[in-house]
Amino acid sequence: MSLTRFIINIRSSFWYIPSLYGVMAIFLAIVSLKFDRYITNLEMIERIPVIFLTDIQLARTILSTISASLLTMTTITFSTILVVLTTFLSEFSPRTLQNFITDHSTQRVLGVFVGGFTYSILLLLFLRDDLSSTFIVPSFAVLLSIVCLIMFVFFINHVSKWMQVSNLIHNITLKIMEQIDQKFEDVSEVHEDAPWEDWESEELNHIKPQKINLNTSGYIKHIDLYGLVKQATIDDCIVKVEKKVGEYVDEDSDVLSIWNISNHKNIGYYEKYFSVAKEKAPIDDIEFGLTKIVEIALRALSPGVNDPNTAINCIESLGKILTKLGQKYLPRSYHNDSNRNLRVIFEHPCFYDYLFKCFYQIRKYGFDDTSVLYSALKALTSISESNSSKIKAIIWEFTEHIIEGINKKELLTLDKRYINEQLEALAKAADKSNVYKPL
Description:
By secondary structure, the chain is an alpha+beta fold.
């Protein structure tokens, strides 16, 4: 297993931060006991206010009370998390559960409770009559319990904010924007390779590839392309990734095709460059984040909910994401080594793929509502205003697709006027005023 894959698996675990806090609590308990014995042996205890000192009986009472209280607070916290997850599952989307579970604030609250309980119970275990007549460590435990109480109040406020759909949409949008900034470079900062540099891809049609599959099943959550390029360079071969991030694979799925150009005898181990999980994870998958926002919008547009304002909020967020995405250089399918030799072929989504992914379901189920249709056209206008002519052409092509699906006979006169105003603004932003035709 590669180091990158190992780190991703550890960081994506729900128990990563609580376990880390628990280990820190064990270390802190040992240091506290050492400190307690140290100041006792040096007779420095006389300089400490008596209010912070306890005898063995009072120390055990305080520590046992704190341990029981923290365990109760931890149980309440877990119950609250289950309530939030049930709400997310029934009201928003099953895919949004991960956003709350993997949120670091949620994990830190649990971590503080686990650490506080571990610290208190270890002190209760290690304190002995023969160690000293007075102890200061229970005061440390009391201080830690106050911190836990503050964290509990913070958690209640945190949960109340997460239960609001607008905050959930905002959180998902920020996560996707961060992923875009980390994954893609600005168009102005990238020098695109010339077409002739990928001449090797034409020769692959005459060579039979070697198929490689993974010895596991699940969803691909990360592909180390840099590692693949490096390994392919060592093996002097060309590798094609047959699956995308977020796709499901099993033991029979062909994940890689390898063309051994120079008949290299030993082919390296490529499975370590793939990270597979039992469920989809938004570590390296922008499309999965977009799917969450789209599903919230679709759930809001369902007849049982009938909440178009939430759908409009989702469309506005999708517009912000696509505006940023249009300003980024989306990587091409060919990845070269330092000598400009083709090494890895990996099909990346283009801007149109992201655009279609965002709006094709909303178009089908929500554009009968004039307000939803208007907000979508407004979002497309914002995208066109901030991007290049290439993106504008894609936006207008998709706009024609939307217009084609509108049932114009069911629109009232004022509805048509309302839509035509925004449609005209969109045509102007996309430099298509000459081909614009009102409904």
